[in-house]
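Protocol step 4 of 6: structure prediction from sequence.
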Amino acid sequence: MSEQWIVGVDLGGTTTKIAFINLKGEILHKWEVPTDNSNEGQNITSNIANAINQKLADINEQKSKLVGIGMGAPGPIDYETGVVLNVVNLGWKDNFPLQESLHSLTALPVVIENDANCAALGEMWNGAGKGARDLVCVTLGTGVGGGVIANGDIVRGINGAAGEIGHITSIPFGGAPCNCGKSGCLETIASATGIVRLAEIELSKAEAKGKLAVLLSENGKVTAKDVFDSARNGDELAKKIVDEVAFHLGFVLANIANTLNPETIVLGGGVSRAGDILLDAVKVNFSLFSFSAVRDSTTLSLATLGNDAGAIGAAWLIKNKLDL
């Protein structure tokens, strides 16, 4: 029997990542297509179907090689039907039948999952959490996303809203407003956006000086990367910001671990590329606030799959559903 492939799709607001993945979780071919959110997003699934057919033609492979399509999509999902309940940036009206639409265009089995959960599944299957059946994945990007895996299965909760780690309240009173409507969420501190906000507050003070202040003067703005680079080079103001981020992140992750006792917590997303300067500081705070048995059994690590995690995790959905 010829090798079987799974199609992994990571649907984003700007681009859609697509990959052919084998049953070991290894990417064989990957590419991207623009996400066309015009005309209420009506072209999105047809563009994906066409892109799959075109890639098969380009590499001279038959569609019979494909066993199914797993897709990570932003927003809440009805997991029984594969309906996306509401998404702001894809143009779809509420209750878009994503699974049915893609299945009708490709004649392949389709499974839909939240994109943050797919990233967690990817890291569990073939990334930093490989072999772990209890895992928490935290994605530190423009926002803060999360996926929780218990005994090898995604924890979704009664309304599909489990794993919203970015919206755990970290500052109960006087915190910054969050896009979710609350204030003081972890996302307002540990996301790239939150880190820039903290930097701007510190740099607005009259006594602000150092490398970060110079970058602001030269460029008119600073980025989260600037903060970590400056801290790495000894900038005291930048180190203060990193310490604040690490405190809140370590505190929240410790309480998650005290509740779940996962084998590993994986930090991914663009902010995690700061590397050890962030991870080491988070570990210190995690140790301070975690229960001793948790501290001794839960490890913190950086994600290893990068932007491939979502597509690999999406492919795992099909492998699991079809018991391949």
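Step 5 (inspection) to follow. The radius of gyration is 21 Å.
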